[in-house]
Amino acid sequence: MGALWPGVTCYFTPRLAALLGQGYRRGLQTSSAFQSHAEEAAAGADEPGPKSAEGGEPGPDGEQQLKEEILEASLPFVHSLGWSEDAIAQGAETLGYSSMVHGMFPGGGVELVNYFYGQSNSKLDEVLKAAVEEAQKNPELHKKTTAFIAAAVEERLRMNVEYHDSWHWALALHSSPSNIPTALHNIGTLVDTIWYHSGDRSHDFNWYTKRGILAAVYKSTELCMLQDKSQDFQNTWAFLERRLSDVHSVKQSV
């Protein structure tokens, strides 16, 4: 098996491999340039094509656009109403729609969480793409893989800071049983984005290995951040650095 980083070997449990496989078949793709994996994912989907910001099926019609506009308008109300139907209702009213329009969102607050997660993943993709392009122009800006991954994870987690006080609520909704397929898609897209822009082009089981380990690092750091009271979340970034350093010791701990 290939190594995540030099000298590191990782083993999956059947359950974890199955979960990653489910997410992969649902379309773990961030960049259209990642053709080999994107084509394989699309082959197993009911309707091949790009996913929406919510992580669901694409919605080119007006209803999907309306839903996204309402969800975007709902985000400011998360501070006072949480990740809830009430926040969605308030967002709809600011656009001139009846508060009853929240009936368009049968999942309730979790649809708002998924929308924010998807939008943040898209922003990360743009940020990392720009960083890679800048590094190609100026080699002095080039980062080694581990440093690049650390910076990318921090960049993505900082997008949650605005909702830090209510993020525990968002995580509870995001990990609910009914949302597992979308949650897998969201975290899968996130780690695939980071690995792709770091230069990874693996096509074997190492593809799963790298993304499985990074998903674990990201989620553990995200939980650490929930409890972090340090200035500018310095304890969280130190935790992240330790977890990435620990990856180099996985072979000895297995």
Tell me the total number of β-strands: 0
Helix content estimate = 55-70%
Alpha-beta classification: mainly alpha
What series of H and E elements makes up the topology? HHHHHHHHHHHH
Number of helices: 12
Describe it for me?
There is one protein chain. It is built from twelve helices and no strands. Helix content is 62%, strand content 0%. The protein starts with 13 loop residues before the first helix and ends with a helix. The chain is mainly α and 254 residues long.
Could you give a short description of this structure?
The protein is mainly alpha-helical and 254 residues long. 62% of the residues lie in helices and 0% in strands.
Summary keywords:
mainly alpha, 254 residues, disordered N terminus, globular
Topology (SSEs and partners):
Elements: H1 14-27, H2 35-43, H3 62-74, H4 78-81, H5 85-94, H6 109-137, H7 145-158, H8 167-174, H9 180-197, H10 206-227, H11 234-246, H12 250-253
